[in-house]
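## retry 2 of 3
previous attempt timed out at serialization; input unchanged, resubmitting
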Amino acid sequence: MNWRLVPEGTFDGYTNMAIDQAIQERVAVGADPVIRFYRWNPSTVSIGYFQRMHEEVDVATCEANGIDYVRRRTGGGAVYHDYEGELTYSIVAPESAFPSDVTESYREICGWLVDGFDRLGIDATFAPINDVEVEGRKISGNAQTRRDGVLLQHGTVLYDLDPETMFSALSVDAEKISDKMVDRARDRVCTVRSATDCSRETLRDTLIEAFVADKEYRTDDYREDELERAQSLAEGRYRTDEWNFQR
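## retry succeeded, writing output
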């Protein structure tokens, strides 16, 4: 299997979700599987497909501070994607390329993350069902969906942490955003910057090395037809209240 690597890209939250779907549609009709790394600008809160927006996100605060909010096609919980503090990846490939058991498929793909962290000198482990941890502290969360014979898994890599902004964007009362809550958040997660002295570019390049290890691949950019389809999906689905507030 020949993989297509798209090593970077920065988009708003709606477009990032739309690109994942556009690529998934292409893979479903026979295109090569894709590994891509990307960032979010502006910063964005994404919620899982089965969540309720108003229960998870402080929409008014997000709008006042220029933070996007979008529903994913994958499950899982609400995630704050910080432009400065996070790197995200997506894997889009035929289901047949991975174990049919969901946990085992997470284990395989998250193993690529573990390998990347190991190359950076970070002792990380897979924590079922879909996290990667360092000494019991989360450094990566991941989510997956399977449609039309295609697996899509995307996940976050926590480079740095801004818990005050994160909590303000989520549905947490301002009065409850105490120093103790911020300290607890820092205790529950591990950031790359707290574990090793590397730049975001070094993190990306090292993860790419781990993700493509022992694979046939070519480096590519986003295709014009993908971006056109993504623009249509972003406007017709991911930016709409019908999609984001359906629950």
